[in-house]
């Protein structure tokens, strides 16, 4: 059975040459292997670009990197490689995102990601412990939240 997996923006940052704590090159290779073996399908929410652009520019400014060439290659890879399917939030997900915001969770992109994963019955691949803690505290289902290690164990790669 193929798992549909919605990616948090954190998992897109390595495409821009940004290291993510806890996500090694080996993890990235193994995730790609899971995709190439047909064990998972990776989805990205179109609105995640808001976070990606902000995070990439912030990291580039901190490290003094010129990111134009890297960004061009990363964008092309993310959009054209066939590894990622880009989707938009549906009305039910937007309604759930409103509910999360009204419950006090201020990160609207994370709200849309979580809500989309719930309404489309997807795994939400995230390392965001604060989001998970918030969801648990407020009685939301977190069974579909996984980090890459949990996902790789589940698909046995």
Describe the model.
52% of the residues lie in helices and 13% in strands. It starts with a strand and ends with a helix. It has 7 helices and 5 strands. It has a single domain (3-155), classed as 3-Layer(aba) Sandwich (Rossmann fold). The protein is globular and about 40 Å long. Helix 1 packs parallel to helix 7 and helix 4 (91-102) crosses helix 5 (108-119). The protein is an alpha/beta fold. Strands 3-2-1-4-5 form a 5-stranded parallel sheet.
In what range is the share of β-strand residues?
Answer: 5-15%
CATH class: Alpha Beta
**Strand tally:** 5
Proportion of helical residues? 40-55%
Secondary-structure element string: EHEHHEHHEHEH
Q: Which structural class is indicated by helix and strand composition?
A: alpha/beta
Q: Radius of gyration, Cα only, in angstroms?
A: 15 Å
CATH-defined architecture: 3-Layer(aba) Sandwich
The main β sheet shows up as:
5 strands, parallel
The shape, in one word, is globular
Number of helices: 7
As laid out across the biggest beta sheet, the strand order is: 3-2-1-4-5
- State the low-pLDDT regions, or none: none
| N-to-C CA distance | 14 Å
- CATH fold node name: Rossmann fold
**Overall pLDDT score:** 96
How many structural domains are formed by the residues?
A: 1
User: So, the CATH homologous superfamily?
Assistant: 5'-nuclease
